[in-house]
Every structure is written in structure tokens, then in C-alpha cells.
Automatic annotation (TrEMBL):
It comes from Mesorhizobium calcicola. It holds the Pfam family NMT1. Transmembrane segments: none annotated. This is Thiamine pyrimidine synthase. Belongs to the NMT1/THI5 family. The keyword Iron-sulfur does not apply. The lineage of its organism: Bacteria, Pseudomonadati, Pseudomonadota, Alphaproteobacteria, Hyphomicrobiales.
Amino acid sequence: MTDLTRRQALLLTLASGLPVVARAGRAQAQSAAQKITVALDWTVNTNHIGLFVARDKGFYGEAGLNVDILPYSDTGAGTLVANRVADFGINGTISLFTQKTAGADLKGVYAVVQSETGRLVFNAARSEIKSPRDLDGLTYGGFGSAWENAVIGTIIRHDGGEGKFGTVTLGTSAYEALTNGSVDFTLEVSTWEGVEAELKGVKQHSFVYADYGVPNEHTTLISSSDAYLRANPKSAAAFIQATRRGYQFAVDHPDEAAALLIAANKDALSNPALIDASLKALIDGHYLRGENGAIGIMDPARMDAIGDYLFASGILRDADGTPAKSRPDFGGYFSNAYLG
């Protein structure tokens, strides 16, 4: 800090009418707070609401933390965490398992949702699609990942079909393509794209993964690295527990939580009705808080089941890109210890 900056700071303090000592004490307290960075997995949405609530309601501050929620970038949150660019990150269970198996330093520490939010959807006008086996030979629009192909194949075969379908990689354009009939079906997040479609009056039918042989999963997690967790166990626990307070608050006070999320992201969240409806879906569907009252807890049986599915499907690959030859110890992929 230059002398000029010091003088400017002093003049600003005096002009505010606050004692210099009080302002200095506040600055010292702020600088003493543990800095933590969190990377998002996508543009801001209701899955992230607990982070913004915890920050803007002061839960992080009360825990002695100064949390910086990093804007979404093209680099995945798991990659940022594994390379120590971010301390924590929002990521999917699938990305955690695939990256961890390939050698990335990642560990799940919080389950944002308690069960699968994804589903297979198609236009309601397609009356000839009565069950998953009717998808054989049709065209899927999606993101081009091995996980998608495995899930769709499992769903169709579980219903007695062959599991053969065409694929067009479209990214998020798949939803528009589905609406205009360019593709026959896609996968969507029921609590976001599904809610948005309903608000727009788009009529859809869907198949739930778990009804057709795909293990239920937590879908979205918060992960850190073993390196960070070993070096900062107290800060990690403080962050996870304050974050849990944020999600708990969102469940108990959805209107205020939604308003906080929107106020913090005015440019990105221009449709309040979508935020309100999405948060309602997350709460009513027992995603943020399970029917058993669980918030943030990763179910070991559920984590093992999805890990086994990924391993059996050949999706888990070693650092050299070859399918994992032996089943990994999935117990080392996550920990509930930081929930307190």
C-alpha cells in the first residue's frame, strides 16, 4: 500500500464519522479470516443456492472464513480443485469417480442433492413411445459422453430392447432440438431444464433412470482435494458445516434464499419465476433434504452402487486411458467426516 493510498484510506475513514481504530479492527478481523475459493460446475443455478446463502447471510463470516465463489469457466471444477486452483468445487458424482480413477486428487465432501435429478425425456406428442424399448433406433441429442451412452443403453435393455440408438452431439442445444423435433429424446435435469420446460408450456414425458436398472446417485457434490483437506482440516470442516447451514436455510426459507441468489447474480439470473419453481422442485422432491432428513450426507451404499455401475460399464479409466482392470476402493473417493 502506498503512502497516498494510506492517506486516502484515513480521509475516507474520517469522512465516514467512524473511529479510525474501529475501522482498523474490522480490517484486521477480515484479513484474519481464512480465504477459501469455490469453483462452480455450471452457470449459476439453484444447485448453488446454499453457497450464496451461506456467504450473504454471514454464515461463512461467523465461521471465520472469507469465501470467494469463482465464476464458471470452461475448465471443469474438478480440474481446478485437483490442480489447487480452487479449494472446493461443485461437481457431479460421475466426474468425481472418473477423474479420481484417472489419478486426479479429488474427494467428495458434501452431497448437494440426495438423489438423482436427471431423467430421460421426450415430447409428450410422441404417443408411439410408451416405454424405453420404443427408443431403439431413434436419435438421441446430448453431450457425447460415455456416461450418457451407458445410461441410455441400460434403460432400453432393462425394458427388453436392444439398446441401439443414434446420437447427435448438441450440448445444451439438444433441448431446443427436442422441442422442434430434430431429435427424438434427450437427458435433462428435472429440477432445472424440466422446470423451465414446464414454465414454457412444453409437454414432456420422461423415464426415471432408477426405474430401469441405473443406480440412484447423489448427482451433484462438493469436492476438495486430499492435499487441501490434510493441510486445512479445521477450515474444511468450518466451510462444509457453514455451507450445510446455507442449504438448510434454503429449505426452511425458500423465498428469502431465492431472493439472495438472484440479488447476488442479477445478470445471470433474469427469470425469478424459474428460480422459485426450481427451488420448489428441489425442496418438494426431497433433493436438498432427503425424506429421512439428511442434508449433505453421502450415502456409502449409494456411492458404492454408482461406482460399481461405472466400473462394470467400462467408464472408469486409469491414467493411461485404459479401462480400470480392478475395482477401485470407492470408500476413499468421499468422506462425510467434515459435516461434523
